[in-house]
Amino acid sequence: MTSAELRAEVEDFLYREARFADEFLLEEWEALLTDDFHYWVPAGRLEGDPSKQLAYLNDNRARVATRIRQLQTGKRLSQLPNSPMRRVISNIEIEPRNDEGISVVANFVIYELATQSSGELRVWPGQAQYRLERIAGNLRMSAKWIELVTAHAGQRNLTFLI
Amino acid sequence: MRIEYQELVRNDRIHGSLLHDPEIFADEMERIFVQNWVFVGHESEIKNDGDWIRRQLGNESVIMVRGESGEVNVLANRCSHRGTALCWEHNGNNPFFQCTYHNWRFGLDGSLRGVPFPDGYSKPKEELGLDRAGQVATYRGFVFANIDGSAGPIDKHLGPAGYELIDRLCEMSPSGKIDLSKGWIGHRVQSNWKLWPESDSDGYHVGFVHASMSASTDTYYDDVAVGGDAVKSSRAMDYGRGHLELDWRPSYKKELSWLGVTRERVKEYCTALAERVGTDRADQMLWDGPPHAFLFPNLFLGETVIAIVEPVAPGEMIHRHTAVQFDGAGDEFNERLLRQTEAAVGPASFITSDDAITAERIQAGISGTNTSWSSTGRGWIDLSRGLHREKVSGDGVRSSDASDETTNRGFWYRYLDAMSGKDRH
Predict the structure, then answer these.
(1) Is the Cβ of A81 closer than 8 Å to some Cβ of chain B?
(2) Of A68, A82, B80, B187, whose CB count within 10 A is highest?
């Protein structure tokens, strides 16, 4: 049974992480990550060894730093201008782990407007699996894995923080 | 109304209507994707008897399947009874294909094997097999098909350059074999399919469209494709028949630049390669790397990435890619190729996502062009860069500076041949 306090703390963290991503607050978002953060969006289910698969996105901490740097250049055409976007998160399930970490699973839907080109409204439904850790009293994210409902179907540009 | 393609494809320019007109798109699906050779897949995707993959060739959904005697069959994904699609997953393994409508059953070669309550039929079963590609050819695992069988020999389609480009890629593998079975990633783009042969083989845009990549990470493209000196030494090649290359070899500033590592990091691979091809040749190959080339009409050889250009509609396409895996190079090396592919190509990549947005912006720009063939004053796309300085060799191969539009024009020359019937033998 997850305590009400822990649930409130985790939900606060997820909502903040979501807002930083939606609003392209890149430095604030990056500050939520641990040094060994792993970011993964496979082309199928969240299963198997990520290192053996070809994914949409499979970033270690160094590569996610590059991803953020590229967005910060002001020359990233696919995010010029940044997509107006909002996501909702729901169905949050929290599982504290023995080693102080916390596993969280949640559903999400992102609405993104492709203002960079066609103006199409793009909808990104899926499940996010987070791994949170407590560092110096604060929650940090050491993994964010995304299973898209459309994983098998191919994607439009995915150059925002999902 | 019959479209006069030679009016729309000129030596120095093309008309924008070629990129959005539905009638032209319908023509292309027939004249290029049915009547010509197209790339289907790779034999490593179907290693065992009964392994199949589903693929889209223009309007035609096909199944590429390993048959009972090990042969590669390319079959229409369409029951010969009522037209029901037989396969809807991306891939699988079956001993036969069974339609879910009336349980008609087909062999891996497409022959009709059985129907429920057969007394109702007087026709011979032989007349009711699945439609098959008229011609199928394989080279070093690359499978090509010509749906209607009328395109003439594959040798004429690929030509010496087509074979050489495939050789140059496969030879990079320690065993001489590559594997393309890591699955394909679909990048759905709101653009005409023909913008991708151009984008994949355009040497002019790299320093502009990909400026954010150069500014945020070390990339070998800075050496071979960005700035005056590099684009002078790299070459834009049109080998004829729509087969194109951006030849980076003269511009690499160090060995293994295309892999982004030093030899110490991939020692085992280098040793294994040298064991097969000899030290001197291996040293040269490790410097030169695999080709950056496009084979008409739908196959991109992007160094260690392979991509298929899949038309969907006049303003909609899929750029579908996979990572090359070198047979015999070891897991660590091949995982490096997976990570390199994820960085370079696809919806979330650092490179082709910006090509996608560029293609979508072109689509937005040209979709307003006048589609009246008689009104040719508006909506042209200029492709004249380097026309005055490109060189033509005795065998018709054109070459110029990598930033010149020699490759772009090469695609359209072959396109015009295909669309105006000159391609026919």
Answers:
(1) no
(2) B187
